[in-house]
Design goal:
Substrate binds at residues 98, 152. With 443 residues, the protein is α/β, with parallel strands linked by helices. The protein has a domain at 7-171 and 285-313: Rossmann fold, CATH 3.40.50.720. It is 46% helix and 16% strand. The structure holds 6-O-phosphono-alpha-D-glucopyranose.
């Protein structure tokens, strides 16, 4: 038998409290995914936290006896040299930026969520230039490596990377994984008997089919949702009931994020109410993160703590590590990822990023063709894709008119003079990350 190649995995944003999730997934697959070096990269400001995470990582590895060396560094280039897989999970501006995004958005009475509304726009403009800088470094230092992106807003960041870099990039999200797990629980069947056909954009996806051992069971899943038995919604989305009439009118299962579109006023009201006692998502995450860090410091802890499952990204290692495994072993498995459309969803450009069930091989990701969407849904996808595409262009160029057009099109950001003011405040408060927009600031 030929010896398996030793793999170097790099995690950008390695000091994230999510890292133990990733480590758990790598360890569970070590017999077929022989990682020998794990590099955690973070910035100076994140080093105190990153040291705690690196120590826990080492304890988790030691417990299993796997032979993986852990490196913690601020030197991104040193880490990227000859990497095989690069996982991107950094948050530009850290949690403080997410808190600011939510605060600014709610001040102007629009949704501030980190991936879709004004918050998603702001996050994209901060993050995309950095993501492209990392990809450029990869082109020089590890041109054959795969870049697995879960940095949010994952759909827009993946689109920027697939359009403007030659690095093989796949965008990931745990929402489809949560949907499959949830459907299995709701139907009372083993998880591995469920197959979904996922299609749409990141955080704007539907399960076009829910197959249980080949039998279509979407209707039953929709009925369970109508009855309030929702096991699909990740922890970061406020738990409120789906609109019954809407669910009854659908013949596919919407992801939890679609309530931002189908029930946007309800969401806004909920966010607004939460902001009065500082319990919006970013506020809660800041608290959970602080608690997690204290737990991680315990020198006897050598497993992923339960509290991490309170975060919206729970189970993302299932997506990330299985993807690495499938690529490395050319498993030709079907996974739900963000990749170049290449005609899979009719009515969208070939070169845009879509989230779709795809065949995973060691040389490429092949998106599977999707049955055409009915017109109304297609229009929503097209509108959001236009928002995403314009946002990517604005993030790269600093063109304020593109930024305004993007926001005007976004169906969950209502337009008006307040958006000009919100944009000004967003740029002013994020100037370190958005210097290209400086020219657009009113004096
Ligand atoms: C979901 C999304 C991720 C997001 C996470 C946020 O699972 O799919 O894109 O990062 O939630 O969770 P948090 O606990 O940070 O609010």
């Amino acid at each position: 038998m030929t010896e398996m190649k030793k793999l170097k995995v790099v995690v950008i944003g390695g000091g994230s409290s999510y890292t133990p999730e990733l480590v758990e997934g790598l360890l569970a697959r070590h017999h077929e995914l022989p990682v020998s070096q794990l590099w955690l990269v973070d910035i100076d400001a994140g080093m105190e936290k990153a040291k705690v995470i690196a120590d826990l990582t080492k304890r988790m590895i030691a417990k299993t006896g796997c032979n993986i060396e852990v490196f913690l560094t601020t030197d991104r280039k040193q880490a990227l040299m000859d990497a095989d897989f690069v996982c991107s999970q950094f948050r530009a501006g850290r949690i403080e930026a997410r808190l600011r995004d939510e605060r600014i958005a709610l001040k102007y009475r629009v949704i501030g969520q980190e991936t879709n509304g004004l918050g998603g726009f702001s996050n994209a403009c901060r993050t995309i230039p950095i993501a492209l800088e990392i990809a450029k470094e990869m082109e020089a230092l590890c041109p054959n490596a795969w870049l697995l992106n879960f940095t949010n807003p994952s759909g827009m960041v993946t689109e920027a990377l697939t359009k403007y870099s030659t690095i093989k990039t796949v965008g990931l999200c745990n929402v489809p994984v949560n949907m499959e797990r949830g459907a299995a629980e709701m139907l009372g069947v083993p998880r591995d008997e469920i197959t979904m056909q996922i299609a749409g954009l990141n955080h704007l996806v539907w399960a076009r089919k829910v197959l249980h051992n080949g039998q279509e069971r979407s209707r039953e899943v929709l009925e369970q949702l109508v009855a309030g038995n929702d096991r699909m919604t990740p922890k970061n989305i406020p738990p409120f009931r789906w609109d019954e009439g809407l669910l009854k009118s659908l013949d596919m299962v919407p992801c939890a994020y679609l309530r931002y579109y189908y029930q946007s006023r309800d969401f806004l009201d909920k966010e607004f109410a939460a902001s009065s006692n500082k319990s919006n998502r970013a506020d809660l995450v800041a608290k959970v993160e602080a608690e997690l860090l204290e737990i991680y410091k315990d020198p006897t802890l050598d497993t992923k703590p339960q509290l991490l499952e309170e975060r919206g990204g729970a189970y993302y290692s299932e997506a990330a590590c299985e993807l690495m495994n499938s690529i490395y072993n050319n498993k030709r498995s079907i996974m739900h990822v963000n990749t170049r459309n290449n005609g899979a969803i009719q009515g969208l450009p070939d070169d845009c990023a879509v989230e779709v069930s795809s065949l995973i091989t060691s040389s490429e990701i092949i998106p599977l063709n999707v049955e055409p969407f009915e017109t109304g849904t297609l229009r929503l996808i097209q509108l959001m894709k236009e928002f995403e595409t314009l946002t990517v262009e604005a993030a790269i160029s600093g063109d304020i008119n593109l930024a305004k057009r993007a926001l005007m099109l976004n169906p969950i950001v209502d337009s008006g003079a307040h958006i000009d003011e919100a944009l000004q405040e967003t740029i002013r408060e994020n100037l370190d990350f958005m210097p290209k927009f400086a020219h657009a600031l009113n004096q």
